[in-house]
Amino acid sequence: MQEKLRQHIEKIIPLSDEEFAFVLSHFTVKQAKKKTFLFRMGESVRYSYFVVSGLLTLIYHDDTGKQHIVSFAMEDWWESDYQAYFSQTAAGMSLQCLENTELYCLTLQDYRKLCSGLPKMEHFFLQKANAGHVGSQRRILSFLTSNAKERYEQLLQRYPALLQRVPKTLLASYLGVSRETLSRLGPSS
Amino acid sequence: MQEKLRQHIEKIIPLSDEEFAFVLSHFTVKQAKKKTFLFRMGESVRYSYFVVSGLLTLIYHDDTGKQHIVSFAMEDWWESDYQAYFSQTAAGMSLQCLENTELYCLTLQDYRKLCSGLPKMEHFFLQKANAGHVGSQRRILSFLTSNAKERYEQLLQRYPALLQRVPKTLLASYLGVSRETLSRLGPSS
């Protein structure tokens, strides 16, 4: 499990054994069962999560109780409600495990300590934040320019593994279409 | 003009005069007339832009020639096609001035030099990237959960000044609605 976090970070910055031990000392480990909520809307968001294995989904429940899937996060991804995390306000979304999931958890305080204690970790997080920003820009564009079928095909092309693991109802919500519409989009649905 | 960049950075990190001079040496200044394209789809993206005064819009032209507004950037905002900028690939979008605009321009090479030469700038950019990521997450959520009228009202509430400055056709495109639909949404349209 440690090796996965180390490999993930070392894709961007090299770490000595001492440095990695320092990094690791800022995280706590969590094993969460399928269906567990890591936080729910209205609760405090204590952690940013790194997924070692398993699958998370960020969910927004609207006033009518309908759920909207904001994102999925699988192995090697980071996830949280970042607005709530960085501003230490109540969660505007819920984060749920879709599978049994192994996580590294990082509080905002430890994130800051880690960055100031080992400045190259700031470089690492900057790369991840930029990549996240690019991914979001791409998704916004897909909402503006693509219909549901195209968005489905883009997802299939980028993350084929994800489609095998995500319940179709949630996939439909992620794409912003009804379950019935999704059924018409492809053989794998 | 220098004071605006300095104040913008000093909201996050303090800078000595020497440090600010070092920061400034990595930027070039550009004055661009209204309607100028800073880059067009297919061209290389040389810079990340900081807007000192004026207004930019990031535009995607689809295969049919229809334009989609991905974002607006006014004073104190950073803008670019970040996927193209960070990966040094051709622009997938165009960046245009909607007003006469004063800009600070930063190449990727200078961005990297600046971060390695003055590591606290990495901290600054991390804060901006995280804020950008949060803003994108909010916009994705608004596409999933809000109708055009709600998205219009959210925009009005967050950026009242923007609505006075942006042509209604572009505003409609940003919201993902037709110009006619926008006209029905509010008295200011």
UniProtKB/TrEMBL annotation, chains A, B:
Cite the InterPro entries for this sequence: cNMP-bd_dom, cNMP-bd_dom_sf, RmlC-like_jellyroll
Q: Which UniProt keywords apply?
A: Kinase, Transferase
The residue ranges of the Cyclic nucleotide-binding domain are 30-116
- Signal peptide bounds: none
Instruction: State the Gene Ontology terms under molecular function.
Output: kinase activity
One of its Pfam families is cNMP_binding
- Classify the source by domain of life: Bacteria
Protein's UniProt name: cAMP-binding domain of CRP or a regulatory subunit of cAMP-dependent protein kinases
